[in-house]
Amino acid sequence: MPRAAPVLSIRGLRKSFGAVEVLRGIDLDVAPGELVFVIGPSGSGKSTLLRCCNRLEVPSDGSIHFDGTDILAPGTDINGVRRRIGMVFQNFNLYPHMTAAGNVTLALRQVLKKDRREADAMAAAALARVGLAEKRDAYPNELSGGQQQRVAIARALALEPKAVLFDEPTSALDPELVGSVLAVMRDLREAGMTMVVVSHEMGFARAAADRVVVMDQGVIVEQGPPAAVFGAPQHARTRAFVEQLV
Ligand code: ADP
Ligand code: MG
């Protein structure tokens, strides 16, 4: 059976900041419904890789195709691409003066031009999906970190993205709040969402990742199923990194 075309296809991706090249030739395909888990030491280029995928950073070289669109081509409607790639960051990035529902409807109204009634209904559905139906009128400072992150996930989901990229979504959370966010991510995976997740949550990777990608100094040094990468890492740097996490 032919494999489905990748949702995200990255070839020869390079990115320099001044004289420093932080991505040095990344090739990565992500299949529909696949959960790719990305690990690597701090500074290895994980965030830059995700940020290039919706052109928050402009690559120096290489190509990125997302859902059939060459996102680096000069004529590309980048806002159209950003609508279809959800991004979830470590620090939630919610507007403090807006309620949970307000944060979710904002994008629906501004980006998708939904009217208030439709946006409210879509926001309510998205908040219910992350288990926060009861919190729609709460402000961020009335929510735990885990709840705030779930609002951020709801905001991404409300736009009905083709894929969601997570950059250390649980790193800012107290340990007891991590599980609620990972549970939402696991539900999303069950629902067939295509996901790229940068995280240190190895238990989650073992349980939910289709593939683990190990980055070091701007390149992918190793990749494979979680059991292989964690159980029998091939690369010295992966071994050192994995040992320090468990
Ligand atoms: P990771 O997410 O794996 O920790 P990053 O992608 O954040 O790594 O960073 C990779 C390297 O690029 C680091 O050395 C970082 O200091 C550098 N870097 C990231 N963003 C910028 C920027 N906007 N300007 C200059 N250097 C940057
Ligand atoms: Mg990072």
From TrEMBL:
The keyword Transmembrane does not apply. Residues 8-242 form the ABC transporter domain. SUPFAM superfamilies: P-loop containing nucleoside triphosphate hydrolases. One of its GO terms (cellular component) is plasma membrane. Keywords: Amino-acid transport, ATP-binding, Cell membrane, Membrane, Nucleotide-binding, Transport. It comes from the Bacteria. Its main location: membrane. It is a peripheral membrane protein. GO terms for molecular function: ABC-type amino acid transporter activity; ATP binding; ATP hydrolysis activity. InterPro entries: AAA+_ATPase (IPR003593), ABC_ATPase_HisP-typ (IPR030679), ABC_transporter-like_ATP-bd (IPR003439), ABC_transporter-like_CS (IPR017871), MetN_ABC_transporter-like (IPR050086), P-loop_NTPase (IPR027417). It is found in: Cell membrane. PROSITE patterns: ABC_TRANSPORTER_1, ABC_TRANSPORTER_2. Belongs to the ABC transporter superfamily. This is Amino acid ABC transporter ATP-binding protein (PAAT family).
